[in-house]
Design goal:
By secondary structure, this protein is α/β, with parallel strands linked by helices. It folds into 2 domains: 6-176, Rossmann fold (3-Layer(aba) Sandwich), CATH 3.40.50.300; 182-477, no CATH class. 45% of the residues lie in helices and 17% in strands. It is globular, with a radius of gyration of 24 Å. 40% of the residues are buried.
Length: 478
């Protein structure tokens, strides 16, 4: 049986690395694509990476990991003055590379273009997760080739996350690339300038404002329906049929291929039904007992499936507090959120401003912006007790005391009926929050007095942008 020849492999490597030729860079399609807000931090991490370490780019399918790798390669050549001949990129899904070891690629790379010993090199392995025992091979490369900065990407985040922690032995640095934030989305569609007014005084944590809340709400609805995925933002075909693109190419491949192959899940349909149920109830409280009863699946199995879905960046759970902000000893109920709201539209159809699920999706969108902030995301809970509830509560990590509380509404009704916020006011008074409670609305801004306590009002879309923007600036300044 014929095998792929060494010459064919070398030709393929040259095809995948056009920057090896003088004056060449990444392909024009990639060059023209808008940059993610995460590019600066990722490029800096790679260029400043110490020897004996590898960078692992984690993230869900279709959030632009490969494109950001190409943008990083261009940045290395333009800004870090790295020679293109010192950069190797290859995708492990390429048929010509099947069965070849990672080390063999590195050896070929060194042989194709001899250079002085000690020259810094950059090697990018795309879609590494399906290489068996990839983490062992990568650790060996890091230890052997100390002058090379290795960067790997993969979509099956569950395997990457666990295996990098277990086997990296301090050799791996992780970098997460989430779906588009609402702030990035507005930049991508070039609407930020017309819709967002920057705060004065240079305070990064200030609230942004708008003179066109109706236009901002229109873009917010577009963001909910298709805006979390970069390719969908620029494709009318995908926007017109998100079920075909997002569901089949992103969700189904994770549920039907990635997770079963990684964890040996036998009942794929059982996992699929669970995800559909959780997606439909994004932003709502879920009871493990009721879920088990309705699905006829054991609680232990459900818990394991939910952990898989979380590891794959599809969902995120947050725990419940009582009126005294105390934790429950047993996790029998929790809130579940999709990691981006666009997945719900792909599963159950697009929504409008009047859709019955708009409140859930608006809350999901706001929560998903917090996912980008590793400082805050683990501090978020929801509170519920017999007479009331609060959508989001942040606890101070050290004292575990509430520092802020947010009630997310897609309605202006509370301006005329502030009594609906009485329980939020009592919760805020009881815990002496560090800042006034925030209540989001559909279009109204300002403040409101409830039970003698001042609360801030801001439109949900504007708050979503503010959280995203502040989070991105925090990430870039780290």
């Amino acid at each position: 049986m014929r095998q792929v020849t060494d010459k064919e492999i070398e030709n393929r490597l040259r095809l995948d690395n056009p920057w090896w030729q003088a004056g060449q860079g990444i392909e024009s399609d990639y060059l023209e694509f808008p940059r993610r807000a995460y590019l600066r931090g990722f490029s800096r991490l790679i260029s400043e990476s110490t020897v004996n370490r590898a960078v692992i780019l984690l993230g869900p399918r279709r959030v632009g990991k490969t494109i950001m790798v190409f943008h990083t390669i261009q940045w290395l050549m333009d800004e870090a003055e790295t020679s293109g001949r010192d950069i190797l990129y290859l995708s492990l899904e390429t048929p010509s590379y099947s069965g070849l070891s990672l080390e063999s690629f590195v050896r070929r790379f060194q042989d194709i273009s001899p250079r002085p010993q000690g020259t810094p090199l950059f090697v990018f392995f795309d879609e590494i997760q399906y290489l068996k025992n990839w983490e062992i091979h990568l650790k060996s490369l890091v230890d052997t080739f100390r002058e090379i900065c290795f960067v790997v990407t993969g979509s099956a985040a569950a395997a990457l996350k666990t295996k990098s922690v277990e086997s990296g032995a301090g050799r791996f640095t992780e970098f997460r690339l989430p779906p588009l934030t609402f702030a990035e989305y507005l930049n991508f569609v070039q609407k930020k300038k017309n819709l967002i007014i920057e705060p004065f005084g240079g305070d990064n944590q200030s609230h942004f404002t708008t003179q066109n809340i109706y236009g901002l709400n229109e873009e917010f609805i577009n963001y909910l329906n298709y805006g979390a995925f970069p390719e969908a933002v620029f494709s009318k075909q995908i926007q017109g049929n998100p079920q075909r693109y997002i569901k089949s190419d992103i969700i189904d491949k994770v549920l039907l291929r990635d997770l079963p192959s990684l964890y040996g899940i036998s009942d794929i349909q059982e996992l699929n039904r669970l995800f559909n149920t959780l997606a439909y109830n994004s932003g709502l409280e879920v009871s493990l007992g009721k879920l088990s009863k309705s699905s006829n699946v054991a609680k232990k199995t459900l818990t394991r499936y939910i952990e898989y879905l979380e590891a794959a960046f599809l969902i995120k759970r947050i725990k419940r507090l009582d009126a005294d902000a105390r934790h429950f000893k047993r996790l029998t109920a929790f809130k579940v959120y999709l990691t981006n709201p666009t997945m719900r539209a792909a599963l159950f159809g697009p929504i409008t401003e009047q859709h019955e699920a708009i409140g859930q999706l608006a809350e999901t969108a706001v929560f998903s912006q917090w996912l980008h902030n590793t400082t805050y995301i683990e501090s978020l809970y929801y509170a519920r007790w017999k007479s009331g509830e609060v959508d989001l509560v942040s606890l101070e990590p050290g004292t575990q005391r509430p520092r802020f509380a947010i009630e997310i509404k897609w309605s202006d009704r509370i301006v005329e009926q502030p009594k609906e916020l009485r329980q939020l006011a009592l919760f805020a008074k009881r815990h002496q929050l560090q800042r006034p409670p925030l209540v989001t609305t559909c279009t109204k801004s300002g403040s409101i007095q409830v039970e003698g306590l001042e609360m801030e009002l801001t439109p949900t879309a504007l708050h979503c942008y503010t959280v995203a923007r502040n989070t991105l600036e925090h990430q870039q300044n780290q």
